[in-house]
Amino acid sequence: MLLKQFSDFNLECGTDEAGRGCLAGPVTAAAVMLPLNFENTVLTDSKKLSETKRDLLKPVIESEALTFGVTHIFEDEIDQINILNASILAMQKSIAKLNPLPEFIIIDGNKFKPYKNIPYQTIVKGDSKYLSIAAASVLAKTYRDEFMNKIHEEFPMYNWKKNKGYPTKEHREAIKTYGPCKYHRKSFRLLPEQLEFEF
Questions:
Q1: Which of 153, 168, 167, 145 is nearest to 18 (CA)?
Q2: C-alpha to C-alpha distance for 114 and 128, rounded to whole angstroms
Q3: pLDDT for 162-194, tens place per residue?
Q4: Which residues partner with 28 through β-bridges?
Q5: Which single residue of 8, 22, 31, 57 could bond 15 by disulfide (Cβ 3.0 to 4.6 Å)?
Q6: DSSP output for 29-44
């Protein structure tokens, strides 16, 4: 069973990101504040859920959350500030969209930067321990997948519909064949032997 709260504050939000290890597309974060009486036996870390289950959970989370926010940080900004800073910025911008703002923030992982002096706690594997972080992981993943499916239409040769921008063998082969496109992160090692690309 996932835990409801980490702190003693009523207004506690969980936040998580998706797409950190991808070669293309945004890093996407979500922040979710759930009511204290929220219950869901299916909800867990989005990586442990099938795409079908995540898609079914998305509207449930959105309708039952007290408030939620989702943010994409795109490849140009990732290249400028690096992926860790981009992930934290995406989480902070998602928290900024919450109304009311949280009294306490729990974050999946071990890195965060203070936001508006709100107390916080980073929790390694938090998405498989706390409901609000699990809910944020599902929203981050589903919103990001939606975006990758959309840009797949523009560049079908990379098959983002399937790999969502992650460094699969097929995705790397496509980069080798067609070169990178505008959605690829230029600061990432796109190929193991990283050839010099003409951007």
A1: 145
A2: 23
A3: 999 999 999 999 999 999 999 999 988 887 765
A4: 18, 72
A5: 31
A6: EEEEE--TT---SS--
- Known binding-site residues for a divalent metal cation equal 16-17, 108
Which CATH number is correct for 12-178, 3.90.1520.10, 3.30.2130.10, 2.60.120.380, 3.30.420.10? 3.30.420.10
Q: Which two tokens stand for residue 190?
A: 């796109």
With tokens 């699990």, the residue in question is 134
Q: Which two tokens stand for residue 38?
A: 């929220």
Residue ranges of the binding site: 16-17, 108
3-state SS class at 110: coil
pTM above 0.90, yes or no: yes
Query: What residues form DSSP beta bridges with 31?
Result: 15, 69
Residues 135, 109: contact at Cβ < 8 Å?
no
Domain boundaries, the chain: 12-178
Taking 60 as the threshold, does the pLDDT of residue 195 lie above it?
no
Structure tokens at 55: 């898609």
Looking at residue 128, what DSSP letter applies? G
Tokens of residue 199, six digits? 């951007």
Measured N-to-C along each axis, helices 51-64 and 131-154 cross at an angle, to the nearest 10 degrees, of 120
